[in-house]
Amino acid sequence: MASKKIRRRDLIQQVVQERGGVSVGALADMLGVSTQTIRRDLDRLCDGKNLLRAHGRIELAADRLNTPFDQRAGTNLVGKRAIAEVAASRIPNGATLFISIGSTALSVARALRGRKELTVITNNLSAAMALSEEVSNRIILPGGELRLPDRDIIGEDVIEFFGRFRAEYAIFGAAGVAGDGGLLEFHPAEVRACDRLRDNARTSILVIDRTKFGRLAPALGGNIADVDLVVCDRPPPEPYDALTEALADRIVFAEEGE
């Protein structure tokens, strides 16, 4: 099988694992191929045990489905907690900050619960709820449709929303990091939203665990070299040494200080 086809099918499985289910049309748009190509891929991938076809969608089988976002939020808890504490330590009371979607960004929001008088601009509903417990905070959300089960909002309206604000800090994650440092996401709209909040923040902070280095995702955004601060749990695998060495003191490994 051609390597391009193998990579595309691996990406389809990865997206379904992340989201629990996705439509044929969304996959075709995400991967830049026809719906017929996606349907041929699904003929091979849907085995009736792990992945199922249902009404123009591919979904995880019922016994594999357990709120994918909560699964991600529950993985590598020690690493994410360490990342979150380091990132949160850079945010003072009274700061204005963007918080992106994703489970690691949510961990940072939870680590910020002791801060007061924050202005939080986010499309991550779980992060907003975590910070809503402090009544001195101001929380600003975009309009639009809530994406479930991730509990976030994406789309062109969100990109325009982030464009209306300026912040001191931008807290964001990534689905993967390519060998050249490219930051990868599953959908172009997620890329554009992250690009906008980074552009409109004085300091950008990428929060990411080492498993994201080399992880595939189809949509390319910025580059890790352009981020002001990267907070990771532990050093990534050896092929990424050059990337981390080039960042010098702009990358922090949260678990090394414990």
From TrEMBL:
Signal in keyword set: no
InterPro entries for the chain: Carb_Metab_HTH_regulators, DeoR-like_C, DeoR_HTH, NagB/RpiA_transferase-like, Tscrpt_reg_HTH_DeoR_CS, WH-like_DNA-bd_sf, WH_DNA-bd_sf
Keyword Magnesium carried by entry: no
Keywords, in A-Z order: DNA-binding, Repressor, Transcription, Transcription regulation
Domain HTH deoR-type intervals: 5-60
PROSITE patterns: HTH_DEOR_1, HTH_DEOR_2
Name of protein: DeoR/GlpR transcriptional regulator
Organism: Thermohalobaculum xanthum
Upper lineage: Bacteria, Pseudomonadati, Pseudomonadota, Alphaproteobacteria, Rhodobacterales
